[in-house]
Structures are given as C-alpha cells and as structure tokens.
Amino acid sequence: MTDAGLQRLDHVAIATHSVAQGYELFCGVLGGEFVNGGDDLDLQIRTLQLRLPPGVKVELMQPTTPDSYLARFLERHGPGFHHMTLFFDDVEKAIAELTQQGYELVDTDLTRPSWRETFLRPRTGLGLLQLADTTLRWDVSADGVTAEDVLAGRVLWRDDRPVLR
Length: 165
Known about the structure:
This protein is α+β, with helices and mostly antiparallel strands.
C-alpha cells in the first residue's frame, strides 16, 4: 500500500445498544474525552467518538430505529467490534492496489470530496475495514457540540459535520 499512503488508524467502531452506557465506560471509567458525534438520519444511527490516551479514538454506534442496518447487525452479532477506519492520502489508489491484490471492496463512495470511502469485505479483511481519505479534521470537536448534546439526540450529522438541531 505504498502508493496509497496509509496515514493512520483513525478509530475503532463498536456497535452497542446504548452509546450512553459506552460513554460511561470509555469516559467515566477509562478516562476518554469527547471528540464528536451525532445522529445520522440516513443511516439511522447515533455515533459518539471518544479519544483515549495516548490519542486512539473509539466510535460508539447505536441504532436509532429498529430497522437500521446496525440494529440488524446487533441482532446477528451482539455488541462489540463493528469496523476499523484507516485514513489514506488517496483512497482511490488504495482501492486500485487492494483490487489488484484480489481483495473485495464494497460500498465505495467517492462522490464527496470531504469524505471518500470504501470498505474491505469482512471475509477478506479479517473484519470490516473502512478505508477513507478526507479534507476535514476528525481529531477536534465541533464548536458548541458536547457529549451531553449527542446523548440527548440534539446533534445531527450535516455535510460531514456535527451540528446542533
């Protein structure tokens, strides 16, 4: 993957029935700090990203409707690891290199310059891997958005950024 320029592991995502419960564990007990989160109306999920020392992020994901893909995932697999997100300099180059090496990619979306992504199918990637490139900063909190706002459902994802409803 030398041409694609792997930058870093951005976060590990955990599927849960309650981001509030995960927040208690990862912030209250383990000392994490809030980074971002909100409700994605299209995906029907609530996310909450937390930074753990020395800087690795965990993303808690909760379904907001009983028929979301994440609700189905939780029914089949229960709470736990959902995916890992890796940031690249150029996700299109990563796609080309992985495809050339025989890996199967799904749900590729290159339409938004601020967030371009693809997923390495779990059976070929040892679990679901999200590969992305982005023009946005994901290591800083959005102005005026708190963990309490996310937990109360007062934050929506709009144009790849969390905003208060």
